[in-house]
Amino acid sequence: MRATKEHVHHPHATLRCLRLELSAFKAPRHRHHHLELTWVERGEGLRQVGDHSAPFAAGDLVLLGPNLPHTWLTHPGWRGKALATVIQFDPALFERPALPELAALQPLVHRSQRGLQVRPGSACHGLITQALTHVRNSAPLDQLAGLIHLLARLNEAPADALQPLSTASLAAPATSSPQPRRIDKVVDWLHAHLAEPLRAEDAARIAHISPAAFSRFFKRELGKTFTDYLNDARCSAAAMALRQTTQPVARIAQDCGFATASHFNVQFKRRYGVNARGYRQASG
User: Fold this and answer.
1) Do 37 and 157 sit in the same domain of this protein?
2) Which domain holds residue 258?
3) Which of 12, 48, 101, 177 gets the highest tally of CB atoms within 10 A of its CB?
4) Beta-carbon count within 10 A of 243 CB
């Protein structure tokens, strides 16, 4: 999906805290200059962060770095409201001379450039969701104190509590044009046509680049080959369908663009560690 540029505006506060109650998460893939901490309280679907796609469910908790493309998309079969708490704040907060202590959080900001998922069930996850609830219900000064508190907890969390998502930061350059980048057009086209046979030559035409140069272009932009990204996206769509439907595995594989069941099984197990039936049983 194309990563549109979002302008986050909160001139009279250090942070913006949102409580989103929607019929569905369906925002287009977008990026913004701010860091963002998103906690999905209700909802299920597909999460896209940079070059990473994966199913999400209630409890999903992710810290996004500046200019990292992202979106959460509710599964069409979801019933009920989608609910999330979102905090957005400017990375310049950590560079203020009047608050030198905040410079200690710079390593966390750097790590967030790939997106960090707080592992469900970890002690860190419980601490952060509790802190988010406090921030959401507090006055402005207490919100600021709460933000610093929860960022400190994230910064000191064990390495295995924070899972990097994207293989590359995918941050837009500072001089980026408001027009969609070529790579965003390719990703938009790819996700819209997952079920179809997709060739690198066709993607090269979308990017207006020669087929000979396309493979280098794609790997430079997304940190992986066109084939690896395509299989990642197809397996993610299949994983979501396995969680949300009772369709036969062979039908899901076909609908997600895999020509043969054997190829689907190899690719799916490589990414999830189990075959499709095992994944469905564990998710049930």
Assistant:
1) yes
2) 182-283
3) 48
4) 19
